Structures are given as C-alpha cells and as structure tokens.
Amino acid sequence: MSKDSNKDEIEKYHLRKKDIENFHLRILVELHPSGADNPHPDYKRYKPAGVISRREWEGIKKNYMLLFAPLHVKIDMIEKYLDDFYGNWKNGVYPASEKFLETLDEIFREFADLLQTKNQKFYTDIQTYDELLEDFQNITNKMAYDGEEKSIGQNILKEQAIKVQAQIESYLKKRAEHGLELTDEMIKFKSLETILEEMHFETVIKPQLPTFVMPPEPEPPPVRTDYDDLKAEFRNQQQLIKILSKDKKKYKAAIKNMRHKPTQMEMKHIIDKCLFKNGKCNNTKVGDILGIDGETAKTWIETLGLSDYAYNPDHLK
Asked: How far out from the chain centre does Cα 292 lie?
C-alpha cells in the first residue's frame, strides 16, 4: 500500500474516531440537556402512560448490553447510559413508554452500528488491537470448561468470543494486506480454539497424568580415617557418580520445565508491570514473564487471592 493510501486511511480513522466521540456527546446531551449537575428541563413534566417495571427494564437493558458486548467499548459505561435513560423515564421526561423505547432504540442501535464500523476499519491504529484484545480476554477470562456444552451462559460467552475473535482476525489481515507491522503481541494472539484446548488439558487430561517425584539425593558416606580405605571409597564414589549422572540428567531434564510459582508479593510486582491502559491486568504479559500461558497466569493470580488487585483498577486509587 502506498504512503498516500496509508495517509488517507489514517485521516479516515481520525474522522471516524471523532464521529464516535461526538456520539458520546450526543448521548450526554440527550440525558442532561442542562448539564450533568442540573435537572432535565422536562423533569416531572409528564405522568408517563404505560408501565415499565424494574424487572422488565433489566430484560431490555440486557438485550442492549448483549448488542454491545462484542464491540470494543466499555460495557459498564453503556450500562450507566441505559440506567440514566431509565431514570429520566421514571422522572417523567417522556410522555409514554413507546416514546421512551423508541428514543432508546434509535440512539443505541445507531451507536452500535457506528462502533461496528470502527471495529472493521480501524486497522491503522494499534490502540484498536489493544481494545479488541482486552474485550476478548474479558470474555474468555469468564469462561470455564464445559465439555458437554450444556451451559447456556458458557455458550453465550463462547459466541461473544467468536465475534470478537473474528474482528481481531479481520484487523490483523488488513494490517498485513496493507503492509503494516504486526507487533509481537499480535503475532502471539491465542485463538478461542487454543484456549478451549488448554482448558480441556488442564481440566481433563492433566489430573490423569502421573505425578513425578524427585528422589532424594544419596547421603554422603561416612568419613574414614584409614588412607587405603579412603582411596578405595573415593574410587567407589567416582564409579557411583558415573552411574547416577545418567539418571540425574534425566531428572534434571524432567524438572527443567517445572515453573517457580511466585509469592503474593512477587506476583503483585509482576501485575504492576503488566497492566492495560484501564488498569486491569494483561494475563498474556504476566504469562510471558513467568513462562506460562495467560490462562495459567490467571489461575495463579486467583490462587494467590489477587483477583481484585489484578482486575479491579479501583485498588490503585
């Protein structure tokens, strides 16, 4: 791809990014026309016709959140927008439930379409990959082994992961097609299929493997005072060393791949070096440092009681 074409794509990216920023602003203006600290001008203006119970609202909100789940956008921000709209509805801003739901659908479906365009075309920006990878890991970190695939929740997570992975694959292909660099982290991207295979190994295969126990080192022979006996003992030891060295090499080779599990304090230092921009832990980078895969790194973090420290950025405040 020519430099001029790359320049055009980057300019288009910045224009699309500006469109998304403007859409966030549009939502905020719709929610708070007079500013976030001031009541809505239509507050208590209507006594809404129709009823939307809290239970019904949770179902409506869930559908919208599922719509945004595979898009690289902060889902808690979308949830807050939705709840603020529901608050306006309860405070009499809309005359009828139909008007409220119509406004909601118009804004959020258009926003989802805009984000989908961003996901498909922003291959010139490395930050896009970081956001997509974070979305993918947020989904796969919630997954557990489900060999019979009977869990509805796990199947939904799997579907979401497949959608985000498709966006990542499209992103990487477009970067390669247009002569843009693939970073080391992009090259090391681990697919959902690989993650599921590793879950199967850890859950089903590994527990069935025999446990290897290193035999104790032989105790040194007692010291003798007689010189001739010492010489004979020395010769015997040399012979014994030759015999044992072969087995010892096998033992060393067997334990070469056994990894050191860090202490809680050591793990905290590692986590601090491997954070996404939002303050959450990047399991892949933790695994790189420890010589393990990202899923095992996540398991170690949980075992050490550091889930909140690793995945809740509020602990930094």
From this structure: 16
